[in-house]
């Protein structure tokens, strides 16, 4: 057992994170067996792979002139914000299968769905660009099977990140103002298979792999001190455990709030 835990530490894995993934897969097995994941538009189980595309909407969001200008200017990657929103089986938000509850779903069931181990993970990159790198730009990168659009990877500008940061950000990876070309950053964000399955080719794999790719790119920059390379390596090595502990904390807090609300409704 000790050797297994040590292997997890060396590989940047987390025992708690592995348990969470296992629990999520068991939950998907149950949903597959009960037919929940075969409802809706796609008509498939959580294992089936959906053809996806890469939709880079960054230029469209910025406008062609501004996009071209930023591509020619110095760009600094300051932070990678690891974010999470609910994969709701109640309202269909970020739900690849448009799953809706049956008539027998209780208020308690809805509460537990909100505090689920199944969530939508994505990245928001905090960049500084423009003259003297004085302009802050937030780029959102995610993989989704969410209709009505085709499944795949979506890259866009998130101008309202600061307004929603408190509710969606799990934690932040500090890159330390690394100068990387804007188009190089977008290429890393798009360098992943766009095909999607709820079980194995989902947002979790995309965010983790892409965050690691960005950190590797940071470590490859010239003139970095041994101390800075070590700090970036620590950011990578602790990523899995930070995902697990931050998510667990959020699940517990959400569950407490929802149970409190449920208790208030039943007593009222």
Tally of DSSP β-strands: 6
The topology string of helices and strands comes to: HHEHHEHEEEHEHHHH
Based on CA atoms alone, the radius of gyration comes out at: 20 Å
Structure class: alpha+beta
Average pLDDT figure: 77
Overall tally of domains:
1
Distance between the termini: 50 Å
By DSSP (H or I, 4+ residues per run), the number of helices equals 10
Percent of residues in beta strands: 15-25%
Strand order of the largest sheet: 1-5-4-3-2-6
Largest sheet: 6 strands, mixed
Unreliable stretches (pLDDT < 50, length at least 5) are: 1-12, 38-42, 88-115
Helix content: 40-55%
Tell me the overall shape: globular
List key phrases describing it.
alpha+beta; 268 residues; 20% strand; 6 strands
Q: Can you offer a commentary on this structure?
A:
Helix content is 47%, strand content 20%. By secondary structure, it is an alpha+beta fold. It has helices at 2-10, 15-34, 58-62, 64-72, 107-114, 161-168, 182-190, 203-219, 226-237, 239-267; strands at residues 53-56, 76-86, 119-129, 135-144, 152-157, 169-179. The protein has one domain. Helix 5 runs antiparallel to helix 10 (239-267). Strands 1-5-4-3-2-6 form a 6-stranded mixed beta sheet. Residues 1-12, 38-42 and 88-115 have low confidence and may be disordered. The longest helix has 29 residues, at 239-267.
